[in-house]
Amino acid sequence: MSLQSLLAEHGAEWLEECLYLDPAHARAYAADAYAFDSQPPPAVFLPRTQTELQRVVKACVEHDLPMAPRGAGTGLSGGCVSREGAVQIGCSRLRRIVEIDPLDRIAVVEAGVVNLELSQEARRWGLYFAPDPSSQIASTVGGNFAENAGGPHTLKYAVTRAHVLGIRMIDAEGEWVELGGPHAPMPGGDLLGLHCGAEGTLGIVAELILRLSPRARAVYTVLAAFDEAEDAADTVAAIVAAGVVPAAMEFIDRVVLRAVEEAFELGLPVEAGAVLLVEVEGSAAAVAAEKERVLHECRSHGVRQLREAGEERERARLWKARKHAFGALGRLAPRYATQDGVVPRAEVPAIVRRVGEVARAHDLTIGIVLHAGDGNLHPAILYDDRDPRSVRAALDAGHEILEACISLGGSPTGEHGVGLEKRDFLDRLWSGYELEQMAQLRQVFDPQERCNPAKLLPSGAGCGEGRPRHRRGILP
Length: 476
Ligand SMILES: Cc1cc2nc3c(=O)[nH]c(=O)nc-3n(C[C@H](O)[C@H](O)[C@H](O)COP(=O)(O)OP(=O)(O)OC[C@H]3O[C@@H](n4cnc5c(N)ncnc54)[C@H](O)[C@@H]3O)c2cc1C
Description:
Elements: H1 3-9, H2 13-16, E1 19-20, H3 23-28, E2 44-45, H4 50-62, E3 67-70, E4 87-90, E5 97-101, E6 106-110, H5 115-122, E7 127-128, H6 141-147, H7 154-157, E8 164-170, E9 176-180, H8 191-195, E10 204-211, E11 213-214, E12 218-226, H9 229-241, E13 248-253, H10 254-264, E14 274-282, H11 284-300, E15 305-308, H12 312-323, H13 325-329, E16 335-338, E17 341-342, H14 348-362, E18 366-371, E19 376-383, H15 388-407, H16 426-429, H17 432-445
Parallel strand pairs: 2-4, 3-4
Antiparallel strand pairs: 1-2, 5-6, 6-10, 7-11, 8-9, 8-10, 12-14, 12-15, 13-14, 13-18, 16-19, 17-19, 18-19
Helix pairs in contact: 9-11, 9-14, 14-15
Flavin-adenine dinucleotide binds at residues 32-33, 68-76, 79-80, 91, 111, 133-135, 139-140, 142-144, 146-147, 149-151, 199-200, 204-205, 326, 415-417, 452.
């Protein structure tokens, strides 16, 4: 069976408004924000309603067509890119905020709702959706769920999984499935948790029940500039060791700082080696106490300048430096690749040093943004996609940085997912036994591997027989 047979059989009117076969659409939906891989899909479906979404999936099942779910396409690991002839099924038209219940602090929303739009809508009740990926002006809650997205404020408030109570999705057979519900916690196995972060391999989410959080009563935000990047990195560990869990603690290095200042003229201290953007929030008394501890640690580590946000406008300006950092980098080179690795917090100074070494070895410019409190770094590797040597150098540099993260006891992805890009790193992280169990779990939900084929698990992950049942160094 094939796409042609689907079209012949379903040449129906309902398809006309949601199926795109022209080369322009194929090109537009060929990639996400991961620069190194693209593949025009054979067809793009953009259903307008949940009913249409199910009809599309059912038609794909009948005609044995693999499917690649897609939100806004802001993913950074090639997660929604078509593989093995998968048609794209985009959820971006499913944008209804079905209900906001301020008493139970719950929102019911369709998967294509944009993250920031939900918080803007919930604001009138003093609520917001806590996961705040820096892509929040574009990324969808369905994509956030599928990637278990993080963000600057997930240091204190945890990643997306902690804020999803239930989902309504279409499984690999085209049938509706509901998991979880508005009144957590649910006893028994955590099937919802299994689906969160599954990167579209277990079905297509149509609707979510999300937990909303109350806005903090008091917030204190400061930008601390340091001469040396390592002093900023040391301050991160010191603040946490002092017992403070900031709402956010972001590290921005000199390369990124200068690009942002050139783009937005925010009056940033461009001579600094790096800045920390630290935010504490809670009750007025707690914020006052934590502010003193943060300032003490900054001063103990030789801070050269402190810029405090006295009012909301100034706070927004400081956050602009962080949230628009990647956009600003586009001014410095034809292309950049954003990497995503994690190290234990104590190793943040070591990984910052290592990124500098890798940049020098490959004669590349690499800017660093870090969700520093989580040890989650995003080196932005600048390169020229018209020069094959530059592309090779960028790929090698990214690889070496991720290797360094693993060697330092961390992981090759913190929040951008495995997608296509990181599949081959998983052998380094998991035992054959663990990978095999994961592959078998996938088989339970999608035996034909129709949903997002060739993603998330390394090829051959289901052949772990005879491999060790544990990783070296974990068990005695
Ligand atoms: C500038 C920039 C900053 C970013 N900052 C952050 C950050 O701070 N934190 C962070 O975690 N990420 C960040 N990202 C990465 C990205 O925005 C997130 O992974 C986001 O959650 C992807 O959402 P999306 O709607 O764009 O999904 P897509 O990119 O379209 O898809 C991502 C994955 O989800 C699957 N998927 C999408 N929708 C559905 C659905 N309805 N049902 C089932 N599967 C689905 C896809 O198949 C794919 O595997 C950033 C990206 C950019 C470009």
